[in-house]
Amino acid sequence: MKKLSHLEAILWSVALPGFAQLLTGSYLKGILFMFLEFLINLNGHFNKAIMLSFLGKTVEASNIINYDWLMFYPCLYMFAMWDAYKSSFVNPPKHIYLPFAFSAYFVTIGLMYSPIIYVHNKLIGPVFLPILSLIPGIFIGNVIRRMLLKRDKH
């Protein structure tokens, strides 16, 4: 089994959930993550929403999204990233899952609120608000992780 660096593991997972697993020889897991990503992406109409969002048509993007399907996307994405990142360590650090888990939670919340959050009379949309929601997810997950590590030392 090939080991990826921590950065490689994260970046291949950002490119497509399952890529890092395929590169390390975890073929079943990698194929499963890729299959689930395609299934959710296609049924949620996510690629079209990404395209529309980057073209400034966030209201259209919000209207074509199938939120019932897309609600699964943040958890799948973050779980695949965590799995790849964790696998890049010989001995994974304690509580390393927390930033990923909180990111999945906050991105899901961002997705739920994306159809109603406007800034300067412009809808942020189902792509950009969830991406922005990563910031508090990573921050809070790391704060809680540090608190637990500090507690574990004592």
TrEMBL record:
The keyword Membrane applies. It comes from the Bacteria. The chain crosses the membrane at residues 64-85, 97-117, 123-144. It comes from Heyndrickxia ginsengihumi. This is Membrane protein. Keywords: Membrane, Transmembrane, Transmembrane helix. The lineage of its organism: Bacteria, Bacillati, Bacillota, Bacilli, Bacillales.
